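Inputs:
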Amino acid sequence: MFTTKIGVLGAGVTGVRVVEHLQTLGHTNILVSDKVAARAQRLSASHSTDAIRVAAVTREELFECTVVVLACGAPHAHMTTQLIQRGVSVVSLSDNVADCMNLLALDAQAKEHKTVIIVGAASSPGVTGLLLRSMTERFDTIDEAHVAMHGTGGPDCARQHHDALSGQSIGWHDDEWLRRPSGSGRELCWFPEPVGAYDCYRAELPDPVLLKKAMPELERITARVSATRRDRFTARLPMLAPPHAEGGMGAVRIEVRGNRGGSRIVEIAGIAERIAQLAGVVSAASAHAIATGAVTVHGARVLGEPELPNAALLELVLASGVRLHQFVGA
Amino acid sequence: MNFIRRVLMVLGIAGAAGAILRLKGRSEHSTTRGGWAPMTPSESDSTNTPSTKK
């Protein structure tokens, strides 16, 4: 059992999964805060037991924690600044490009306060970095990584998905950042069952920036997200209908290209899971690693960086019941 | 009045053409054959495992 105080900001679909997984990992002192106090209190009431304390607290009380998981909508940079200045490490699930860049810019400040910020510890970005690092072992050298994602977590994630389809995508291509309109670059991507094939498009996603930081030797990095015709047609308009409480079954895949034994090799790994569940598991595993001292470095970090215990984190993710698949026979 | 009509017509045609170009098109197949099989991550680099017991 671990009695270290771990905070969770956001008691929505993802926040609940973070708390549940922290409990599974043996944490008994969890503080939860949400802009809707009743939501945090409901989560506290439903998850507290005689042995496990899940307390609904104010945002300021999270400053007492060792590590805080930001499972609320973006932006996270402002709250992260406040937390690291008080010596609290942060696990951010933000998938907003500008927000992720702002979090990475806090690197020096985090080092100064001897804290660590794990940027983009969700599904994509997040588990994609862990998979990339794991798949590197199968190559002599790698030079390309292409990520695709299907589905959304809670309402904030759905709004972010909607906005991502109306911005400018970022991709790394032969030593330069390429910007292309979101919604272009259609590619039919196959995800593990039961998700199957979906048309995926470029979108304003932070994966290329974070994967480039995790593995600077990559020469080409792209990120796509699945979208329907209605998604693309209405991307530049406000959301016409309120998002669902939780998206259905989602999936993430990463295609890695490189060389092995003088031959060109392509390996594809994928996970089919509810996006909020996957994000919750990855962020809880990251928070657990920080709280137990397995992360020994400071500064702004992304999953997949060689200084982090990536294999151990992926092991924790898979131990939670997430199934990893590989595309074979192509 | 004619000018406004022409402008509206041009905007309408441009909008319709843009919508068609955005919604139509051919998918580029990333992979065309094969299937998914369970995968075990490589076991190297498994040092520094965060323990779940204390």
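Residues 6 and 27 of chain B are 35 Å apart (CA to CA). Flag for discussion at group meeting.
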